[in-house]
Specification:
The protein is of the alpha/beta class. The protein is built from eight helices and nine strands. Bound molecules: 2-hydroxyethylsulfonic acid. InterPro entries: NAD(P)-bd_dom_sf, Sc_DH/Rdtase_CS, SDR_fam.
């Protein structure tokens, strides 16, 4: 059996890195992409030391020319995990910075679009391709202070749904994974521009927020189902988060 290739965007940390490890363990050759080459190199070596196969490629998914050049560099692609994304700011709609909204649209919507458009011919040519897109529960519901992120992630969700319809009859399935509260090293810290206290308050009293590993487990599970099985939308939250606004906090 030939080795299948999986591209992971946003592979330098969090859910992307954790999923890359799991896909490598499942036997995929994993192409690790993100802006931070130094982190990718460390992960590439770690995967190789564990007996897996990985290659690092520094890439900003919002740079369309760079994404096209990246796609050209690949011999073939079987799986795209379009994971790169971020939240910037938690301000009300009335006062939010349009620059934050633009940046969130760039990475969460156009970044996914760029990756999908550039790699789609190779995914189709594989004869059995998978596109997995990481959206968010913010792509399905809204909450105060989350307007710009929700607007962008609703866009991510719209890409997944539209693409699945448009690829009907093609040998490519489209999986969307929508996590709720996940505690990673960077998501909330980035959102609050490095304010560690503000970031920590998101998870305050929550016994067990999801981890990057929890989400990666789900993504890898969905990707490794038989080809005819399409997990089209999977929502996962920690037990402590019954709904976006219903979070059980202890203490
Ligand atoms: C992250 C989930 O609740 O912070 O994608 O919007 S939330």
């Amino acid at each position: 059996m030939t080795t299948r290739t999986a591209v992971v965007t946003g592979a330098s940390s969090g859910i992307g890195a954790a999923t890359a490890r799991k896909l490598a363990a499942a036997g995929y050759h994993v192409v690790l992409t993100a802006r931070r080459a130094d982190r990718l190199d460390v992960l590439e070596k770690e995967i190789a030391a564990a007996g897996g196969s990985a290659a690092a490629y520094a890439l900003d998914v919002t740079d369309r020319d760079a994404v096209d050049a990246f796609a050209q560099s690949l011999d073939g692609v079987d799986v795209l995990f379009a994971n790169a994304g971020a939240a910037f700011g938690a301000d009300p709609v009335a006062t939010a910075d349009p620059a934050d909204w633009r940046a969130m649209y760039e990475v969460n919507v156009l970044g996914v679009l760029n990756s999908v458009q550039a790699l789609l011919p190779k995914l189709i040519a594989s004869g059995d391709g998978t596109i997995a897109i990481l959206s968010s529960t913010a792509g399905l519901v809204v909450y105060e202070g989350g307007g710009g992120y929700a607007a962008a992630k609703h866009g991510t969700h719209a890409i997944a749904g539209t693409l699945r319809l448009e690829l009907s009859g093609q040998p490519v399935r489209v999986i969307e994974i929508a996590p709720g509260m996940v505690k990673t090293d960077e998501f909330a810290v980035n959102r609050f521009r490095g304010d560690q206290d503000a970031a920590a308050s998101v998870y305050e009293g929550v016994a067990e927020p999801l981890t990057a590993d929890d989400v990666a487990d789900t993504v890898a599970w969905a990707i490794t189902r038989p080809s005819h099985v399409n997990v089209d939308l999977l929502v996962l939250r920690p037990r402590a988060q019954a709904a976006q606004h219903k979070v059980h906090r202890e203490g």
